[in-house]
Design a protein that fits this description.
The protein has 1 helix and 12 strands, in the order E-E-E-E-E-E-E-E-E-E-E-E-H. The protein has 130 residues and is mainly β. The chain has a 5-stranded mixed beta sheet with strand order 1-2-7-12-5, with helices on one face. The protein has a 3-stranded antiparallel beta sheet with strand order 4-9-10, with no helix packed on it. Strands 3-6 form a two-stranded antiparallel ribbon. A hairpin with a 5-residue loop joins strand 1 and strand 2.
Length: 130
């Protein structure tokens, strides 16, 4: 699992890689949670949980926004966690690692589904934001 700044303010790009010897299945919705806060990022457009298959050595990409940059509401946290399956804890990333050294501003966070390329994930988030 990787996470990195996504360019626009409060946007993060994530990826998951299958390092196994055969294909594997992850949930098609990445689970993104924020330290000390209830809930997780909501999928845009809304979608149901389901399987997403990664070939051996395959990688999937998603993009998410933690808060609208114009928002004055919300909370600031020091970490976020990303999991490819809601039954797993996932990997935790500090605010600086995702390009938010002053803290991760969280208000109505949204995420894309997993996509086959970083460009597709970025485009899906841009489409959702209008």
């Amino acid at each position: 699992m990787t996470a990195a700044p996504g360019g626009p303010e409060n946007v993060v790009h994530i990826s998951v890689t299958n390092h196994g010897r055969s294909s594997c299945v992850v949930d098609r919705i990445p689970t993104i949670t924020f330290a000390g806060l209830d809930g997780s990022a909501q999928t845009v457009p809304p979608a149901e949980s389901g399987p997403y298959t990664l070939a051996r050595g395959g990688r999937a990409y998603a993009a998410f926004r933690t808060a609208d940059p114009a928002s004055t509401e919300g909370h600031f946290v020091g970490t976020l966690s990303v999991s490819a399956d809601p039954s797993h804890y996932g990997v935790t990333f500090g605010a600086a690692a995702v390009g938010m050294p002053q803290g991760i501003h969280v208000w109505e966070p949204i995420t894309t589904l997993w996509h086959g390329s970083a460009a597709a994930a970025t485009s899906a988030l841009a489409d959702a934001l209008g």
